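Standup notes
- DV: blocked on the single-chain target, sequence here:
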Amino acid sequence: MANHKLVDVTLDESTVVRWSADVEHERRIAIFDLLEENSFELLKSSDERYEGPYKLTLATIEGRLNFDVRSTDDAPLMNFRLAMTPFRRIIREYFAICDSYYEAIKTASPSQIEAIDMGRRGLHNQGSELLQERLDGKIKVDTQTARRLFTLVCVLHLKDNRGPR
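- DV (later): unblocked, structure below
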C-alpha cells in the first residue's frame, strides 16, 4: 500500500564526531535506497494500523536503538527503544568481514572476493532478520527495508561506540 512507506529517514547525528568517507557513503546509499522503495507499516495492535506515510528518526540513546516515527506533518505516532545487545555480535562480525572485503578488493582473486562477499551478505541478512524479529508487533517491514535499516543501525553503532572510522 502507498500509505505504508517511509518518506523521510534521518539519523540523529547529535553526538557524531565524524564518520569516514566509506561509512558516510553507505549511510547515503542506504537512505536513498530506503526512500526509493520500502514497506513500513506501523502497528497499533494486531488488527489496527497507523496511517502513513511516515517519517523516521533513528538514534542511539543510552545504548539503545531509538525509533521515533511521525506522520508527514510531524505528529508523533510511536517512539520506542530496542536493546542493542542482541545486535552487537552480528554488527561486530559484519564490520570485521567488511574490513576483509575492502582489503580483498585490493589484492585478492575474484573467487576470494566473492567468498568474502557471500559471508558479508549472509551476516547482513542475519542482522536484518533479527531486526524484523525485534520490530515484531510494532513495525512490519519487508526484507529489503529491514536490510537497509540494518545498515543504518550499523552506522549508528559506530557512532555509539566510537568504533572504526
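- Follow-up: Confidence is low (pLDDT under 50) at residues 160-165.
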